Structure formats: structure tokens, C-alpha cells
Amino acid sequence: MDFNDTPEQAKFRAGCREWLEINAELKADKKNVNAESSLESHLKIAKEWQQKKYGAGWAMLHWPKEYGGVEASPIERIIWGQEEAKFNVPGGIFEIGLGMCGPVMMQYASEEQKNRYLAPMAEGKEIWCQLFSEPAAGSDVAGLRSKAEKDGDDWIINGQKVWTSGAHYSDFGILVVRHDPDLAKHKGLTFFFVDMKTPGISVKPIKQITGQAGSGSGFNEVYFDDVRIPDSQRLGEIGDGWKVAITTLMNERLAVGDARGSDIEEALTLSKTKDDAGEALIKNDAVRERLADWFCEANGLKYTKFRTISALSKGEAPGPEASITKIVSANKLQSIGNFGIDSGDMAGMLIDDDNGMSSFQGAWLGAPGLRIAGGTDEILRNVIAERVLGLPQDPRADKGIAFKDIPTKA
Amino acid sequence: MNLDFSDDQKYLQEEARKFFDKEGGLGNARKVMDESQDADHELWNKIVELGWTAIRVPEAYDGLGLGHLELCVVAEELGRSLAPVPFSSSVYFFTEALIKYGSEDIKTELLPKLVSGEVVGTYGIAEDSHQATEANLQVIASGDKLNGTKIAVPDAGMATHMIVVTKSNSGTELRLVNLTDPSVTITPQKNIDTSRAFFKVDFKDTPSNLLGQSGQGWGYIQHLLDQAAVLFAFEQVGGSQAALDMAKAYSLERFAFGRQIGSYQAIKHKLADMYIAITLAKSNCYFGAWALSSESAELPLASATARVSATKAFQLCSKENIQTHGGNGFTWEYDCHLFYKRSKVLSVLLGSEATWKEKLVTSLEKTNTLT
User: Fold this and answer.
1) Domain range list for chain A
2) What does residue B312 show for φ and ψ, rounded to 5 degrees?
3) Using the 8-state DSSP alphabet, how is residue B215 labeled?
4) A-chain residues within 8 Å CB-CB of B262?
5) Contact (CB<8Å) B286/A1
6) Is residue A309 pLDDT above 90, yes or no?
7) Which of A206-210, A240-244, A285-289 is predicted least confidently?
8) 3-state secondary structure of A297
9) Nearest CB to A289: which of B269, B357, B364?
10) CB atoms closer than 10 angstroms to residue B367
């Protein structure tokens, strides 16, 4: 047991570090570029950074060489991520494209399409989004109802997508829709990619409980009103939409990580420094007990990640342990946010940049979304129970019948 | 980055698991419980023959001279099978205490006999129904003579020797006692997990030998506790996993309302929560194992973290295993209660969850940055 790189990994890390030091600034004391207020300027610096990385070969490490990648190993991607995270660089714009849309295009698009789309995606010139969830299809995403009807060599799309991250600044999207409601739920789906500027597509940012709308990589509703897509933009066979979507979601699972925000360190700093009726908050036994619980969770997640990295580092497939990450971290975030606000007593509810509450308020307000996005707590427990422990699926009321006959109300 | 056991250590663990399965698995704990024995002596003799009592003993004293990581993998299997043997008392505590603090004479005399099984050791800390502190110790060393009473001493029926935490004129001391001395009285104490045996040990002018320096005993025992907590945590993780495996197997075979109970989300989510608790505990144990084997200054924090999360995991898994089994889980016949009882004994044996949470936060108070 040790926490050291192998000689090859150390060499790779040094290479990352050398390039980053020349091309970016360390985080310390710099204004965080991700806090950039205007979306336009954030996109601009994000695109510039992506282009720089592309030029030097860091942009899409895991992609095959034939599409401009370097076929880096998973451990090298992690090392790059660890080093890049130490620098003040923009993020959160290209992950969906590079992580999910790119791989699905490589697998299903024509050679001509791959030549047209992959390089601009990698270079950061074109941004991609993923159009899966719908108002009536969240956890049950295969229950989606947006329609695709064949019209000559085209398809006509009608319906609504929701929770589409970055749709408001994306150039293209991958889309799964229902081509035949007479088939069973999973059989009647077909997969496409679509130009977001196609007539009939309208994007409406969602105002979240945080009050934010359309900021950063925020969420959107996307409406399709007689949107015409050529059959050549179909990915996979007609009726294979679910299979293609699953491939994509598998890639998403690799991308979903910790819930970012107030963590044990912040709770600990607060507890050591905040006065609580004449002494530091950390002297309160109820606080000590909660700090211990959060530390066990935070440390447990940290070393769970290290175990996964250790397996990758040896070229082995990691175990299923990383499946606990989001469920634990999002709940911890909510609990720590709640604690921080409580620590301010009546002032805890006041919005005031100077009272030290804003990051805890942000954590508390954002955590409910994190417990839902990318698989709800309940779906993730099902995933652990079924895929890790091997328990049976729930009996389902939608099996073996045409999609149009599936009950939707009492 | 290599937060994992080596292939050799994994092989040792696999062999340990096969060994306990072959020797009767949970049946050994049940036998000790049903027949009111103090331990499974036959199983213990086989463990000695396998050389596991020699793992940490240096080669100069007939041992194998291996590190703590080998002990960690064996501990997980002891925990999984609830092995009713004095391994933790004799190996995690007594042997470690001699290696760390024993004089050359003591090591030469006792370490080879710990390897051969001729000597079995244990330890005494508690004296009353509250947390032992340096201030409330009542076992007194006057010169080499001990007087007073230790309670809840594990395995004292089988043990030949014992480490005792005592008060003396020059402060707290760790002292070594030969339990066969006629001045020692050993009385069994009933406990909630009768697959393990605990004793009251009375000393009346009992001769003893000092370990290490006089006045340093409290620091020594804290260090020994920190070390042992990591190994106990591996036992707790092993027990947790076995309880989850048992709950899973039952949820697949038991039908209610026309389907497997494992297909109900109420059961699936319960078992998923058990898996989550085990995963967190296991990862904390790995960090504890690293801190233990590398003699890191982070051991106090790492061991408290492993201890607290493993205690929580085993208590959760053992109680929810009963719940998953419904009425059957409350019968003597089903094995669920073996895990429930062992989880409680392990959760207080080195000090309660609250005690270890306090140790954890005390360590956190001393650190400025989290690693």
C-alpha cells in the first residue's frame, strides 16, 4: 500500500504539470474563472482553453487516435484531471460532448459525419448537449413520449425535453424519441443527433429553486415543434434507440462524481472559528458527533475513490464501490449546508455576503437538485441493489404491452 | 497509487476464508454458545498451526516477521466467520504490546511461546461500568505487586498472561502478569455474546513486570488501542459483509405476496444502505491499514475513522439482517443473532462509538489541513 505514482504515471503527471504551468495559472488567490458572471465571456474563455488543450493533445485523452485522441488509459485521464483541477481553468461546458456525444458518434455515425463533427467537438468550436429526459420521463427515461414520424427521407419530431444541461448554448444535441407507440416501451425508440438551430426547436431556461436560470451550465426545457431531421442523422437502427441510449448513459455514469460544495473541511473550519455562546462551536458535543459522522463519510468516499484509482492504475477493472459516491456526497452536502445555516442562529437565514453563510446556503439550496440529477437517491439504491447485489427488478406494470396502453394516471 | 492489498496478502485472505469455511464457519461460534465453552480450542490450535499467531513476531523470536497488512486480511475473515478464538486478545493486543514495549528478556521468553501457542495473552483495561481514564484507574502497582480488579477481560480463561493498565506512584504503567500465579483469581462474567468469554480478574499482591517506562502507560495503551482498532474494524467489516450476504440470500428465497421479498424496494433499499455503509467502512479500513502498516503519524485519526465507520456498519448490517428475516431472524435457530450480538460486543470492546468519535474529533482539532 502506498499513495505514489508508478514511474510511468509520475512521468505522465510531470508532463501534464509542465504544460499546465506554462499555459494556466494555479488556483491560489486568483479570481475563479468559473465565477465569471456573463455566460458569453465564460463560453469564450472555455472555448479558448479547450482549443489550447486540443492543440497540445490534452483535449480528449481517451479518444481513439483516429479521431485525434491519444488513447490514454483511465489512470492517465484521472491524473490529468487531478492536475488540471489545481489550475484556474474553465470547466463544465464540453464534458457532455466529449464524454457522451463523441463516443456515441464514433460508434454509430457515418465516416463522413465523424469527419465533419468530431474534430470541432474536440476543439471546443461546437458544443453538444444530451436530449433525453422529458416532463413525464425522469427516472423512467424510457417512458419518453416525444414523437418521431417518418416523412420521406426525413423524420418530423414533436415533443418536449427537459433538464437539458447547456441546451441554451449548444450547437448540436443527441436525441432519443419514440417512433412507434404501438411497440413495447423500450422497442419503440430511435436515436438521432440534431442541429440545435433547426427550425422548430426552442430552448427555455428553467428557473431553479436557487432562483438561477440559464446561468453557467444550467438546465433547460427544449421544445420540438415539427422539427425536420434527415434520416442520415439517425444513430443506430430504427427501434434501437434504447440500446444506443444505454451506451451513452454508461458513459455518463463514469462522468458523475462528487457533489461539489461545502464539505467536511468547511464544516470543520466553521466549527473551530465560530463562536457559540462564548466558546468555539466545536466544543459543543452535538457538533462533535456530527463532525465525526461527516468525516467518516468524506474520508470513506475519498479512499473509495483511491481504491478505484488503484485498480485502474494496475490496469484492472474497478469494483462497483464507486456506485455509492453521489448518494453519499449529495446527502452529506445537504446536511452540512443545513448545519452551516443553523450555526448562524437567526442570522443563518439572512442573505449577506459578509456573514459567512453564503456557501452553506448555496449547498443547502443546491443539494436537493444533486440528490435528483444523474439518478435519484432511490434509483441509485435500485442500481446498487440490482446491479451490485444482484437482487431482482421490481415487477413492472409496463411490461409486455404496447407503449400507448401503459397507464399514466389513476 | 496503490491503496490495495498485494496478491500475496489477497491469497492469504482467500486461504483464511477457505479455512474457516472448511472448519465449520458460523457453526463454531454456535457450538461455543450452545455448549457454554470459553472458546473453540480445536479451532485455535489449528490457527496456531497455520502460523497466524507468528505473523507479526520477528524472525529472531521464531516468528514470520510480517507486517500489519497480513493481520488485516486475516482479521476480516475472523470477523466474517465470527471465529470464537482469542486471536484479537493475544495477537492484536498482547503480542503487539510485547513487540513494542517488552524488554529483551520478556521478548525472548514469551514471543516464541506465542508463536507455538504455549502462551496466550490478553489485556485488562476496564474496571467499572464507565470509560476507563488515567484518573479513575483503581488497579494499583506498588513496586512489582498488583492489587485491584479488572472486568470484562476477554479470553482470560484460556490466557496464560495478561497486560494490565495500572496506576503507580510514578504514573500509569503497563504491566505484564502471569495469570497462572496463585494470587490471581479469574471469574467468568456472563455477557450478551456467549460465543466469546469475558472474565473478572482479581489481583492480590500479584507479581508483575513493567513494560516500557513507568509513567508512560497511558500513552502506550492509547497507541495499542489505535492499532487494535484498525484490526477490529476489519473484523467488523467482515462481519458486516457476512450479515449482508445472509440478508441477500434470504431475500432471494423468501416469498411474500407472490414474489421474492428481495424484489421489494423496501428491502432493496435497506440492503443498498448496508452496502453503502460497508463500502465507506472498508475504504476507511484501507486507509487505517496504510496508517498502521506505515507507522504513520495519522494513525490516531485513521484508526478512529475506521473504527467509527466499521462499528456503524456492523451494527446497521446485523440489525437489518434480523429485520430482513422477519420472525425467523428473532429465533435462536437462525444465525442472525450471532452477528447482532458480536457486533455489539465488538462495538464496546475497545470503548464505545461515542468514545471513538470523541477521539476522532480530538484528532481533527489538532490538524490544520485535512489530508
Assistant:
1) 7-91, 128-254, 257-373
2) -65, -45
3) T
4) 385, 391-392
5) yes
6) no
7) A206-210
8) helix
9) B357
10) 11
What ipTM is given for this predicted complex? 0.95
- Terminal CA-to-CA distance of chain B, rounded, Å? 15
Please give the grid coordinates belonging to residue B302.
Answer: 485513521
Supply A325's cell numbers: 459516491
Domain spanning A257-373 has what CATH number?
Answer: 1.20.140.10
Q: Show the domains of chain B with their CATH numbers.
A: 7-116 (1.10.540.10), 121-216 (2.40.110.10), 218-366 (1.20.140.10)
Residue A338 has pLDDT above 90, yes or no: yes
A79 to chain B: closest CA residue: B1
Residue A114 is predicted with a pLDDT of 95
Report the pLDDT averaged over residues A379-407. 93
A373: Cβ–Cβ under 8 A, 6 or more apart, which residues? A163
Q: Which of A40-54, A202-216, A384-398, B255-269 has the lowest mean pLDDT?
A: A202-216
The second-level CATH assignment, the architecture, of A128-254 is Beta Barrel (2.40)
Contact across the interface for B263 and A295, Cβ inside 8 Å = no
**Residue B148 to residue A11: CA distance in whole angstroms:** 62
User: Which of helix, strand or coil describes residue A135?
Assistant: coil
Residue of chain A whose alpha carbon sits nearest to that of B249: A391
pLDDT the model gives residue A354: 82
Mean pLDDT of B3-32: 96
Mean pLDDT within B284-294: 96
Q: According to the model, what pLDDT value does residue B370 have?
A: 61
Chain mean pLDDT for chain B: 96
Nearest chain B Cα distance for residue A103, angstroms: 28
Q: Do B272 and A382 touch (CB under 8 A)?
A: yes
- Once rounded to an integer, what is the mean pLDDT over residues B28-54? 96
Contact B230, B88 (CB under 8 A): no
Gap between the Cα atoms of B242 and B236, Å rounded: 10
Shortest distance between the Cα of B162 and any Cα of chain A, in A, equals: 32
Cβ–Cβ < 8 Å for A365, A209: yes
CB contact (8 A) between residue A2 and residue B262? no
A384 touches chain B (CB under 8 A): yes
Q: What is the mean pLDDT of residues A290-318?
A: 91
Range list of H helices, B53-193? 68-81, 87, 96-101, 104-116
| Beta strands in A274-370, from DSSP E residues, in sequence order | 275-276, 279-280
**CB of A400 less than 8 A from some CB of B:** no
Question: Considering the entire predicted model, what is its pTM?
Answer: 0.94
- Quick one: DSSP state of residue A87? B
Phi and psi of A314, rounded to 5°? -90, 5
* pLDDT for the residue numbered A258: 61
Enumerate helices (H) and strands (E) in chain B, giving the number of each.
Answer: 12, 9
Give the Cα separation of A225 and A146 in Å (integer).
Answer: 10
How many Å separate Cα A306 from the centre of its chain?
A: 20
Contact list, A293 vs chain B (CB under 8 Å): 357
Q: At residue B369, does pLDDT exceed 70?
A: no
Residue A154 pLDDT: 97
Query: Nearest-CA neighbor of B173 among B142, B201, B215, B131?
Result: B215
Tell me, yes or no, if B181 comes closer than 8 A to chain A by beta carbon.
no
- Quick one: pLDDT band at residue A257, thresholds 50, 70, 90? low
A382 with B308: Cβ contact below 8 A? no
CB-defined contacts A:B, below 8 A = 155
**How far apart are the two ends of chain A, measured CA to CA in Å?**
57
A257-373 and A128-254 share a CATH fold = no
